[in-house]
């Protein structure tokens, strides 16, 4: 391919993706309410960097929790900065207070001690396994959301409504691993950011240009220098608290500060356009090795906009929320004991969140193994008692109505029992 052709192809690709995103958000308001009963929706929010699940759903009823976290433990309910009581043993981080009405109305649930059966502590590998839905297998070519999109029948719309082809939405600068596969997905951008990606940030375009300009000529050298310069500028614009390891852990996902706005726009899209069945967003900033904090601090500053955004998403979806399941997942948890720099390190078991009108909420699901010394995984982490695929497969089967023969195609090699989080 000649340089002129490559540039034209890159430009055309960018215009095409922009048009998809703009068309989706501009769906006519007259389509609202045209979705027929039985059309289920799924939204997946991935917290890249491994959020500390023990600071989200806090086992305040165990003394071992306070013994292990001298400066970052959250206080008991009713105390200054204390957790919000859930069931007498677990409490919700106070920075997630906007979600309490959903818990109290039975539309928010958690699955504690959930995670991957693979023991890796690598962000890259663990995220890959969770997005492919095949832990321990690196050769899986596609992502489980793309397979689900192919297994789900198209939505049924009212007579005269637009049938549409945009059934999957990815919110973010690049298409994530979870969407890899043959089924088409629309990619729409996050809110305006100073480091807005260009066409050269798209992996397929970047690889082509890197190959084209790999020589020693002046043009090639100028290209490589400009790319390096841009990377350095972007890194300099990141918040001071984000180090290089966090950048890798985030996988390009933005911090959650703008999530409430993104959630509001996504809810508007899904409420107005009955064709959109599945959506995905990723948020970074959860790799809290240093100065994690308790009720205040780095993690608290991340959880606040996350809670606000999820509450906004539920509210803005309106009646559509009754047929929507929202899952919040992260690649693994963090160590039970805090480290010497006031943070937590890469762990194992974590918590999965589930929100929706048909979620069996007001309950912490899963078997809790405890966090006393004798119960810890490898002597340091919360053990995994619920495979994350049990949760995902359970939502697909019970909340989305996916039949067993198609469930096996979405999660190949998984033979566990799906966890039923549905009210039905």
TrEMBL record:
Domain of life: Bacteria
Keyword field: Signal
Name assigned to this protein: DUF1501 domain-containing protein
Pfam families per the UniProt record, alphabetical: DUF1501
InterPro entries on file: DUF1501, TAT_signal
PANTHER family from the UniProt entry: BLL7424 PROTEIN, DUF1501 DOMAIN-CONTAINING PROTEIN
Biological source species: Scleromatobacter humisilvae
PROSITE patterns in the record: TAT
The keyword ATP-binding appears for this protein: no
Signal sequence annotation: 1-26
UniProt keyword annotation of Signal present: yes
